[in-house]
Every structure is written in structure tokens, then in C-alpha cells.
Specification:
globular, mainly alpha
Length: 171
């Protein structure tokens, strides 16, 4: 998709998703369950929808651009958040921080980077008509990975499932 200007409806969807993330972290019970059922998939579908495989970047240029816009801020925020766990342990539980390896909430950025890095060659190779085949194969990988009770570092085990949503947004 070639975008030269912002699309209001996409900004509205993203705003709604952000509000749902905040609300999902503030409520419990049934509302929490329903909010968590779709807000993260919707974010990944919107990101996939906005992905442009026909950009002027080759893979290394694309990787450099996404590293600069996603990974560098992730590292910077990690260096800010870790000292906060020492100063404000009641607000930033240390055991949760080191269990996840990243400050809570930042898993999304790394997973988005991994999805985009994997999606780039998929969209280049398959174009949109055969991306569904890639989604089926990734679904099998996600299912097999889900059978393993051990979590992977940095929550990267979320990547196959999120990649399915990302690719389906780009079709």
C-alpha cells in the first residue's frame, strides 16, 4: 500500500487500540478477557496493513531503518526502566522485570521488529496472493511452539502468532 498522507481512520483505530491497552491494564475479569482477545491482534493487523513491501529500500536498508526506529528506542527505554526498578520497586516489580528480560510492555516493540523483519522477504517472495500459504505454515510453527511450556527470552515466542496477524493485515 502506497501512503503519501496519514489516513484518519487508521489513526482512529490506533487511538482506540491505545485506549484499550490502558483499559485492559486497569480492569479485571470479563472486560479484561474481551479486551485482550483483540487489541494486540488489531495493532499487528494495522501495522501489516501499513507495511509497504514495494518501498525503495532493499532488505539491509529496511533493516537499518527499522532498527533505528524500533530497536534503538527499545534499548534506550530499557536503560531508563531498569534503574526505575531499583528506585521505585513497588511500582516496577523487579522479579517481573527480570523474568521477562525486558521492562513490562516493551515486548510489543521487539515482536513488531521481528514480525516486520520476517514479513519483508515473505511479501517480496510471495506477494499478496500467496501470503496465506505463509500464514498457514507459520500457524503450524506457532502451534508447535505453543506446546512447549518454556517461555523464550524477550517473549519472542509471541512472534509467530503476531506474525500471522501482521501478514493478514498486509493482504
Amino acid at each position: 500500500m502506497n501512503l503519501t498522507k496519514r489516513l484518519d481512520y487508521i489513526d482512529i483505530f490506533k487511538g482506540i487500540c491505545i485506549l484499550l491497552v490502558v483499559l485492559g491494564h486497569c480492569v479485571s475479569g470479563i472486560p479484561h478477557f474481551y479486551i485482550y482477545a483483540f487489541h494486540v491482534p488489531l495493532f499487528f493487523m494495522i501495522s501489516g496493513y501499513l507495511f509497504n513491501p514495494d518501498s525503495n529500500y532493499n532488505f539491509l536498508g529496511f533493516l537499518k531503518k527499522r532498527t533505528t526506529s524500533l530497536v534503538v528506542p527499545l534499548i534506550l527505554w530499557t536503560f531508563i526502566a531498569v534503574p526505575l526498578t531499583w528506585v521505585l520497586p513497588n511500582y516496577f516489580p523487579t522479579e517481573r522485570l527480570f523474568q521477562m528480560y525486558l521492562p513490562p510492555g516493551l515486548w510489543f516493540i521487539l515482536t513488531l521488529f521481528l514480525c516486520e523483519t520476517i514479513a519483508y522477504p515473505i511479501f517480496k517472495l510471495f506477494r499478496t496472493k500467496n501470503v496465506w500459504l505463509a500464514c498457514i505454515l507459520i500457524s503450524i510453527v506457532a502451534y508447535i511452539q505453543h506446546l512447549n511450556p518454556d517461555r523464550l527470552p524477550y517473549n519472542i515466542d509471541n512472534t509467530p502468532i503476531c506474525l500471522i496477524y501482521y501478514l493478514s493485515g498486509g493482504v
